[in-house]
Amino acid sequence: MAQKRMKKILVTGAVGQIGSELTMELRKRYGNDNVLATGRKTKPSKMLLNSGPFEFIDIIIKETVEKVVDEYDIDTIYNMAAILSAVGEEKPLLCWNVNINGMYNILEIAHEREMTRVFVPSSIAVFGPETPQDNTPQETVLKPKTMYGVTKVCGELLGDYYFKRFNLDIRGVRYPGIISSETLPGGGTTDYAVEIFYEAIKNKKYTCFVKEDTVLPMMYMPDCIKGTIDLMDTDISKLKHHCDFNLTAMSFSVGKLVDEIKKHIPEFTCNYKPDFRQAIADSWPRSIDDSAAREEWGWKPEYNLPTMTKDMLDKLSNKLSLGR
Fold it and tell me: What's this model's pTM, rounded to 2 decimal places?
């Protein structure tokens, strides 16, 4: 599979939590004009809009994607557009249309134009209650109980099919919960791990929608962006896996996160009022084994719970113009 010179990068879902920061880092690395940011209807931030090209598309409508791919001479796609777990349970048909039919359009366009590389993220949502919940292995049972998880399993299989059938270089990781100081999350089960920081700074209290002892794999956004680009930059000859790398940085309970925040904001309190997202969280792993990513492309996170907590509070305090 010959490597071709990268022309232009397309990021779908560029207004989302991961996509917005990924776009800025890609522009920093490869040049503002070489990275096209796209979204469906959400207005982009001034930073995103002013730093490089932006277009509205709908990945469910293939023609809207083809138009910008051809106009901007796109050669590499990061398909970050997705409906996440909590929203997916409320709107399962929309979740399927975006995450599967939209992904199929992206892969077809990339295959038809012989693109260099495609990134399509998966998630720990591919796992289910039958999966070992501690140190979940790379190869294991995939029987999710959410529409989001179902679409991500299908996405992994579809990506592997395009790799084997058409030699399309498609890559992906199973993201854990992602914590960011820049963009609010968009309807996922791990949203509490971001919301809690905002409420700790603004109101010194938070009501969490999962239980205190709920433990899930997590990652700080700088590590998420680094891991994503590092995988895409790895020579394909080093990869045994392609669309389904386990990826994590830390695992902690909500209670442990609260304790860490209280080291900086002693008066902070947290109450617990579990909702439908508790059942989703309970079906996911507490920790996962990402040794395949470490061995095949040198994955190594830089942040743990204490360093992430301090950095989040510092950045959000400045962002919200509130001192601690």
Answer: 0.93
